[in-house]
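Incident review: delayed structure delivery

Summary: a single-chain prediction request sat in the queue longer than the usual turnaround. Root cause was a stuck worker, restarted by the on-call engineer. No data loss occurred. The affected request and its eventual output are reproduced below so the record is complete for anyone auditing the incident later.

Affected input:
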Amino acid sequence: MEVLGTVTAGLAGACVDERGRLIEHFLLDYASRAARIVDLVRLGKLDNDSDAIHVDAGPVGWAPLDDAARALAEQPMTLDSWIVSGSSGQLAVVEDLVSTGVWSQEVTPVRRQRRYETGRPRDQWGRTAERRLIRPLAPEPASERDAAVTLLASAAGLGDGDHDADTLLVRTGVARWVCELAWQMISQERAKNLDAFGTMRAGKITG
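Output delivered after worker restart:
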């Protein structure tokens, strides 16, 4: 499968700043798990009806999505519960992207800090396409995938984009129902944790 075309990889890319540093935050872990659910819906591996969530745990060929499908199939929990309490966060996705060669990683010689290259072209300001999604006055996302990335990043408080959530939801296509669930849940968690949210908006970067 085309890993860089997933919502999961796109969100991870939006979390790598113009200097290659990874922004980490528990709200972004929530968004990362939500992105995996969105990708499973987009791939036809997860669906819901009035009674239950149905998950096809057969492999799609990328470990973060395969692991998510197995966890959701084996554990009796709701999607929003898994988004909040799942054990695999954003760093697990980043480490897989590096280990499989989709991304590359360097460690600075003095401070031993990690720097990531996401495989996406950068503009004159060092921004990848995913980083441009969350900048102020960004144009409307051109694809369903980009709309989902923008929505989840915004829900977690990443960046300074000013898109209307309802407009983004319309653009997410078949995954709209789960994008709406994730938006509402992550936004509520952000509102309950304003101190931690403020830390991320101030640019807390680890690695």
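Verification: Confidence is low (pLDDT under 50) at residues 202-207.
Action items: add queue-age alerting; document worker restart procedure.
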